[in-house]
Amino acid sequence: MLDKKCILVGIPLDCGKVTKGCVMGPDAYRTVGLFEVIQNLGYEVFDFGNVSPETFDSVDVDNLEPYKLNENIAWTGAIAQIAKKQMQFGLPIFMGGDHAVSMGSVSGVAAYAATQNRPLFVLWLDAHSDFHTPQSTKSGNLHGTPMAYFTGQAGFEKFPELEVIVDPRNVFMIGLRSVDHPEKEALDALSISIADMRFIDEFGIKPSLLQFLARVRDSNGLLHVSFDVDFLDPMIAPAVGTTVPGGATIREAHLTMELLHDSGLVTSLDLVELNPMLDENGKTAKLMVDLTASILGKRIFDKPTGSL
Protein backbone atom coordinates (compact mmCIF):
# COMPACT_ATOMS: atom_id res chain seq x y z
CA MET A 1 0.00 0.00 0.00
CA LEU A 2 1.17 3.53 -0.72
CA ASP A 3 2.10 5.28 2.54
CA LYS A 4 -1.37 4.77 4.06
CA LYS A 5 -3.00 7.37 1.82
CA CYS A 6 -6.27 6.77 -0.06
CA ILE A 7 -7.96 8.98 -2.64
CA LEU A 8 -11.67 8.42 -3.26
CA VAL A 9 -12.58 9.24 -6.86
CA GLY A 10 -16.31 9.25 -7.63
CA ILE A 11 -17.17 8.20 -11.18
CA PRO A 12 -20.95 8.38 -11.75
CA LEU A 13 -20.66 6.76 -15.18
CA ASP A 14 -23.97 5.15 -16.14
CA CYS A 15 -23.68 4.87 -19.92
CA GLY A 16 -21.94 1.52 -20.26
CA LYS A 17 -25.28 -0.29 -20.32
CA VAL A 18 -28.97 0.36 -20.79
CA THR A 19 -30.06 -0.41 -17.21
CA LYS A 20 -29.80 2.74 -15.10
CA GLY A 21 -28.84 3.26 -11.46
CA CYS A 22 -25.04 3.03 -11.24
CA VAL A 23 -24.89 6.82 -11.43
CA MET A 24 -25.76 6.74 -7.72
CA GLY A 25 -22.96 4.34 -6.82
CA PRO A 26 -20.33 6.87 -5.64
CA ASP A 27 -22.73 8.64 -3.31
CA ALA A 28 -24.00 5.32 -1.96
CA TYR A 29 -20.46 4.46 -0.91
CA ARG A 30 -20.15 7.83 0.76
CA THR A 31 -23.52 7.44 2.48
CA VAL A 32 -22.65 4.10 4.07
CA GLY A 33 -19.37 5.52 5.37
CA LEU A 34 -16.53 4.39 3.12
CA PHE A 35 -14.50 7.50 3.98
CA GLU A 36 -14.88 7.00 7.72
CA VAL A 37 -14.19 3.26 7.57
CA ILE A 38 -10.92 3.80 5.74
CA GLN A 39 -9.97 6.66 8.05
CA ASN A 40 -10.57 4.46 11.09
CA LEU A 41 -8.06 1.97 9.69
CA GLY A 42 -5.36 4.62 10.04
CA TYR A 43 -5.29 5.96 6.50
CA GLU A 44 -5.16 9.54 5.44
CA VAL A 45 -8.21 9.86 3.18
CA PHE A 46 -9.01 12.50 0.58
CA ASP A 47 -12.30 12.62 -1.32
CA PHE A 48 -11.57 13.96 -4.80
CA GLY A 49 -15.29 14.39 -5.52
CA ASN A 50 -17.00 13.22 -8.68
CA VAL A 51 -15.41 13.15 -12.12
CA SER A 52 -17.19 14.53 -15.21
CA PRO A 53 -16.70 13.31 -18.77
CA GLU A 54 -14.98 15.29 -21.48
CA THR A 55 -17.19 17.15 -23.96
CA PHE A 56 -19.06 14.84 -26.33
CA ASP A 57 -21.82 14.84 -28.94
CA SER A 58 -24.94 13.46 -27.30
CA VAL A 59 -26.09 11.85 -30.55
CA ASP A 60 -23.94 9.36 -32.44
CA VAL A 61 -25.03 10.47 -35.89
CA ASP A 62 -22.99 7.94 -37.84
CA ASN A 63 -23.41 5.00 -35.49
CA LEU A 64 -26.17 4.41 -32.97
CA GLU A 65 -24.47 1.22 -31.79
CA PRO A 66 -22.85 0.54 -29.40
CA TYR A 67 -24.96 2.21 -26.76
CA LYS A 68 -23.89 5.81 -26.06
CA LEU A 69 -20.56 5.36 -27.80
CA ASN A 70 -19.56 9.03 -27.73
CA GLU A 71 -20.34 9.39 -24.04
CA ASN A 72 -18.30 6.31 -23.17
CA ILE A 73 -15.36 7.67 -25.18
CA ALA A 74 -15.58 10.99 -23.34
CA TRP A 75 -15.65 9.30 -19.94
CA THR A 76 -12.68 7.08 -20.81
CA GLY A 77 -10.47 10.03 -21.65
CA ALA A 78 -11.37 11.96 -18.51
CA ILE A 79 -10.98 9.00 -16.15
CA ALA A 80 -7.63 7.97 -17.64
CA GLN A 81 -6.14 11.42 -17.08
CA ILE A 82 -7.34 11.58 -13.48
CA ALA A 83 -6.24 8.01 -12.73
CA LYS A 84 -2.72 8.65 -14.01
CA LYS A 85 -2.46 11.82 -11.92
CA GLN A 86 -3.94 10.48 -8.68
CA MET A 87 -1.57 7.51 -8.63
CA GLN A 88 1.14 9.96 -7.60
CA PHE A 89 -0.54 10.71 -4.29
CA GLY A 90 -1.65 7.41 -2.82
CA LEU A 91 -3.99 4.50 -3.45
CA PRO A 92 -6.91 5.70 -5.58
CA ILE A 93 -10.28 4.00 -5.17
CA PHE A 94 -12.41 4.55 -8.25
CA MET A 95 -16.03 4.43 -7.06
CA GLY A 96 -18.26 3.62 -10.02
CA GLY A 97 -20.34 3.65 -11.98
CA ASP A 98 -20.61 0.64 -14.24
CA HIS A 99 -17.62 -1.41 -15.38
CA ALA A 100 -16.95 0.88 -18.35
CA VAL A 101 -15.15 2.88 -15.63
CA SER A 102 -12.23 0.47 -16.01
CA MET A 103 -11.55 1.52 -19.58
CA GLY A 104 -10.26 4.76 -18.12
CA SER A 105 -9.04 3.71 -14.68
CA VAL A 106 -6.88 0.80 -15.85
CA SER A 107 -5.48 2.60 -18.89
CA GLY A 108 -4.58 5.60 -16.73
CA VAL A 109 -2.97 3.49 -14.03
CA ALA A 110 -1.02 1.58 -16.69
CA ALA A 111 0.27 4.88 -18.07
CA TYR A 112 1.43 5.88 -14.59
CA ALA A 113 3.12 2.50 -14.06
CA ALA A 114 5.10 3.06 -17.24
CA THR A 115 6.46 6.35 -15.86
CA GLN A 116 7.85 4.32 -12.96
CA ASN A 117 9.30 1.68 -15.31
CA ARG A 118 7.09 -0.93 -13.70
CA PRO A 119 4.56 -3.30 -15.28
CA LEU A 120 0.89 -3.17 -14.36
CA PHE A 121 -0.92 -6.33 -13.27
CA VAL A 122 -4.73 -6.49 -13.13
CA LEU A 123 -6.83 -8.70 -10.86
CA TRP A 124 -10.33 -8.93 -12.35
CA LEU A 125 -13.00 -9.97 -9.83
CA ASP A 126 -16.11 -10.45 -11.93
CA ALA A 127 -18.74 -12.89 -13.13
CA HIS A 128 -17.94 -11.75 -16.68
CA SER A 129 -14.71 -11.43 -18.62
CA ASP A 130 -15.76 -8.14 -20.27
CA PHE A 131 -13.66 -9.09 -23.28
CA HIS A 132 -16.03 -7.99 -26.03
CA THR A 133 -15.12 -5.34 -28.56
CA PRO A 134 -17.53 -2.73 -29.94
CA GLN A 135 -17.93 -5.05 -32.94
CA SER A 136 -18.47 -8.33 -31.11
CA THR A 137 -20.94 -7.17 -28.46
CA LYS A 138 -24.51 -8.15 -29.32
CA SER A 139 -26.04 -6.03 -26.56
CA GLY A 140 -24.11 -2.89 -27.47
CA ASN A 141 -23.33 -2.39 -23.77
CA LEU A 142 -19.76 -1.13 -23.47
CA HIS A 143 -19.39 -2.17 -19.83
CA GLY A 144 -18.64 -5.55 -21.40
CA THR A 145 -15.55 -4.26 -23.26
CA PRO A 146 -12.97 -2.73 -20.87
CA MET A 147 -10.69 -5.76 -20.69
CA ALA A 148 -10.43 -5.91 -24.48
CA TYR A 149 -9.73 -2.17 -24.64
CA PHE A 150 -6.86 -1.88 -22.20
CA THR A 151 -5.19 -5.08 -23.45
CA GLY A 152 -4.99 -3.50 -26.89
CA GLN A 153 -7.50 -5.53 -28.89
CA ALA A 154 -8.69 -4.25 -32.29
CA GLY A 155 -11.94 -2.32 -32.67
CA PHE A 156 -11.40 0.65 -30.34
CA GLU A 157 -10.06 3.10 -32.92
CA LYS A 158 -12.53 5.80 -31.85
CA PHE A 159 -11.43 5.59 -28.21
CA PRO A 160 -8.45 7.45 -26.74
CA GLU A 161 -5.20 5.93 -27.92
CA LEU A 162 -3.63 3.87 -25.17
CA GLU A 163 -0.37 5.22 -23.77
CA VAL A 164 0.45 1.72 -22.59
CA ILE A 165 -1.13 -1.64 -23.40
CA VAL A 166 -1.62 -3.97 -20.45
CA ASP A 167 0.04 -7.30 -21.22
CA PRO A 168 -2.74 -9.95 -21.20
CA ARG A 169 -0.28 -12.25 -19.43
CA ASN A 170 -0.44 -9.81 -16.49
CA VAL A 171 -4.19 -10.31 -16.03
CA PHE A 172 -5.84 -12.78 -13.65
CA MET A 173 -9.61 -13.23 -13.64
CA ILE A 174 -11.39 -14.74 -10.64
CA GLY A 175 -15.05 -15.67 -10.36
CA LEU A 176 -16.06 -16.01 -14.02
CA ARG A 177 -19.31 -17.83 -14.68
CA SER A 178 -20.85 -16.01 -17.68
CA VAL A 179 -18.58 -15.80 -20.74
CA ASP A 180 -19.84 -15.52 -24.32
CA HIS A 181 -18.32 -17.70 -27.05
CA PRO A 182 -16.41 -14.86 -28.82
CA GLU A 183 -14.93 -13.85 -25.48
CA LYS A 184 -13.90 -17.42 -24.67
CA GLU A 185 -12.12 -17.76 -28.01
CA ALA A 186 -10.25 -14.49 -27.42
CA LEU A 187 -9.28 -15.45 -23.87
CA ASP A 188 -8.02 -18.85 -24.98
CA ALA A 189 -5.97 -17.31 -27.77
CA LEU A 190 -4.25 -14.93 -25.35
CA SER A 191 -3.76 -17.51 -22.57
CA ILE A 192 -5.20 -15.16 -19.93
CA SER A 193 -5.11 -16.69 -16.44
CA ILE A 194 -8.56 -17.58 -15.14
CA ALA A 195 -10.00 -19.13 -11.99
CA ASP A 196 -13.69 -19.51 -12.76
CA MET A 197 -16.19 -20.62 -10.15
CA ARG A 198 -15.81 -24.28 -11.14
CA PHE A 199 -12.08 -23.97 -10.44
CA ILE A 200 -12.77 -22.23 -7.12
CA ASP A 201 -15.26 -24.94 -6.13
CA GLU A 202 -12.62 -27.60 -6.76
CA PHE A 203 -9.43 -25.94 -5.55
CA GLY A 204 -10.35 -22.78 -3.65
CA ILE A 205 -9.19 -19.22 -4.22
CA LYS A 206 -5.96 -19.14 -2.23
CA PRO A 207 -3.42 -21.22 -4.23
CA SER A 208 -3.90 -19.56 -7.61
CA LEU A 209 -4.20 -16.07 -6.12
CA LEU A 210 -0.94 -16.51 -4.20
CA GLN A 211 0.78 -17.66 -7.40
CA PHE A 212 -0.43 -14.56 -9.19
CA LEU A 213 0.67 -12.27 -6.36
CA ALA A 214 4.11 -13.90 -6.39
CA ARG A 215 4.39 -13.00 -10.08
CA VAL A 216 3.46 -9.39 -9.33
CA ARG A 217 6.08 -9.24 -6.58
CA ASP A 218 8.81 -10.90 -8.64
CA SER A 219 8.16 -8.45 -11.49
CA ASN A 220 8.16 -5.39 -9.19
CA GLY A 221 4.73 -4.66 -10.61
CA LEU A 222 1.89 -2.40 -9.61
CA LEU A 223 -1.40 -4.17 -8.92
CA HIS A 224 -4.82 -2.83 -9.90
CA VAL A 225 -7.85 -4.66 -8.51
CA SER A 226 -11.11 -4.26 -10.45
CA PHE A 227 -13.95 -5.41 -8.22
CA ASP A 228 -17.38 -5.86 -9.80
CA VAL A 229 -20.34 -6.37 -7.46
CA ASP A 230 -21.40 -9.40 -9.51
CA PHE A 231 -18.24 -11.23 -8.43
CA LEU A 232 -20.35 -11.87 -5.34
CA ASP A 233 -23.30 -14.21 -5.19
CA PRO A 234 -26.53 -12.23 -5.72
CA MET A 235 -27.97 -13.75 -2.55
CA ILE A 236 -25.54 -11.60 -0.57
CA ALA A 237 -25.15 -8.73 -3.04
CA PRO A 238 -28.37 -8.10 -4.98
CA ALA A 239 -27.64 -4.52 -6.06
CA VAL A 240 -26.28 -5.22 -9.53
CA GLY A 241 -28.00 -5.33 -12.89
CA THR A 242 -26.02 -8.32 -14.18
CA THR A 243 -26.66 -10.94 -11.51
CA VAL A 244 -25.33 -14.45 -12.13
CA PRO A 245 -26.08 -17.15 -9.52
CA GLY A 246 -23.25 -19.07 -7.93
CA GLY A 247 -20.84 -16.25 -7.11
CA ALA A 248 -18.34 -15.81 -4.30
CA THR A 249 -19.54 -16.22 -0.73
CA ILE A 250 -18.86 -13.65 1.97
CA ARG A 251 -15.93 -15.67 3.33
CA GLU A 252 -14.45 -16.35 -0.12
CA ALA A 253 -14.63 -12.65 -0.87
CA HIS A 254 -13.11 -11.62 2.47
CA LEU A 255 -10.35 -14.20 2.10
CA THR A 256 -9.51 -12.73 -1.31
CA MET A 257 -9.33 -9.24 0.16
CA GLU A 258 -7.32 -10.34 3.19
CA LEU A 259 -4.77 -12.13 1.00
CA LEU A 260 -4.47 -9.01 -1.13
CA HIS A 261 -3.81 -6.90 1.95
CA ASP A 262 -1.28 -9.39 3.27
CA SER A 263 0.62 -9.12 -0.01
CA GLY A 264 1.08 -5.36 0.32
CA LEU A 265 0.94 -5.11 -3.47
CA VAL A 266 -2.37 -3.37 -4.22
CA THR A 267 -1.86 0.12 -5.63
CA SER A 268 -5.32 0.99 -7.03
CA LEU A 269 -8.88 -0.29 -6.83
CA ASP A 270 -12.14 -0.15 -8.80
CA LEU A 271 -15.51 -0.61 -7.11
CA VAL A 272 -18.01 -0.97 -9.94
CA GLU A 273 -21.56 -1.92 -10.91
CA LEU A 274 -23.23 -1.01 -7.60
CA ASN A 275 -26.81 -0.07 -8.45
CA PRO A 276 -28.48 1.33 -5.32
CA MET A 277 -31.88 1.14 -7.07
CA LEU A 278 -31.64 -2.64 -6.76
CA ASP A 279 -30.29 -2.80 -3.20
CA GLU A 280 -32.02 -3.94 -0.01
CA ASN A 281 -31.61 -1.20 2.63
CA GLY A 282 -28.01 -0.63 1.61
CA LYS A 283 -27.08 -4.31 2.07
CA THR A 284 -24.79 -4.50 -0.96
CA ALA A 285 -23.19 -1.11 -0.45
CA LYS A 286 -22.34 -1.98 3.15
CA LEU A 287 -20.85 -5.32 2.13
CA MET A 288 -18.70 -3.66 -0.54
CA VAL A 289 -17.43 -1.21 2.07
CA ASP A 290 -16.66 -4.10 4.46
CA LEU A 291 -14.72 -5.87 1.72
CA THR A 292 -12.84 -2.68 0.85
CA ALA A 293 -11.91 -2.43 4.53
CA SER A 294 -10.53 -5.98 4.35
CA ILE A 295 -8.31 -5.13 1.41
CA LEU A 296 -6.99 -2.22 3.47
CA GLY A 297 -6.26 -4.27 6.57
CA LYS A 298 -9.41 -4.89 8.57
CA ARG A 299 -9.84 -8.38 9.98
CA ILE A 300 -13.25 -9.84 10.76
CA PHE A 301 -12.16 -12.79 12.84
CA ASP A 302 -9.17 -11.25 14.54
CA LYS A 303 -10.26 -11.79 18.13
CA PRO A 304 -8.76 -14.75 20.00
CA THR A 305 -11.15 -17.63 20.54
CA GLY A 306 -12.09 -18.08 24.18
CA SER A 307 -12.19 -21.37 26.06
CA LEU A 308 -14.96 -23.66 24.94
In terms of topology, how is this protein built?
Blueprint lengths: L4 E7 L13 H7 L2 H7 L3 E7 L18 H18 L4 E6 L4 H15 L4 E6 L20 H5 L20 E4 L6 H10 L2 E3 L1 H7 L2 H13 L3 E7 L21 H14 L2 E7 L10 H13 L13
Parallel strand pairs: 1-2, 1-3, 3-8, 4-5, 4-7, 5-6, 7-8
In short, what is this structure?
This protein has 308 residues and is α/β, with parallel strands linked by helices.
Written description of the protein model:
The protein is built from ten helices and eight strands. With 308 residues, the chain is of the alpha/beta class. The protein has a single domain (5-295), classed as 3-Layer(aba) Sandwich (Arginase, Chain A). It has an eight-stranded parallel sheet, sandwiched between helices. The longest helix is centred in the N-terminal third of the chain and has 18 residues, at 69-86. It is globular, with a radius of gyration of 18 Å.
| Strand ordering within the main sheet | 2-1-3-8-7-4-5-6
State the fourth-level CATH superfamily. Answer: Ureohydrolase domain
Label the structural class. Answer: alpha/beta
Q: How much helical structure, as a percent, in the residues?
A: 25-40%
CATH architecture tag: 3-Layer(aba) Sandwich
Shape descriptor: globular
Query: Unreliable runs, pLDDT <50, ≥5 residues?
Result: none
Order of helices and strands: EHHEHEHEHEHEHHEHEH
The CATH class is identified as Alpha Beta
User: According to CATH, what is the topology?
Assistant: Arginase, Chain A
Report strand %.
Answer: 15-25%
Measured distance between first and last alpha carbons = 37 Å
Radius of gyration: 18 Å
Largest sheet: 8 strands, parallel
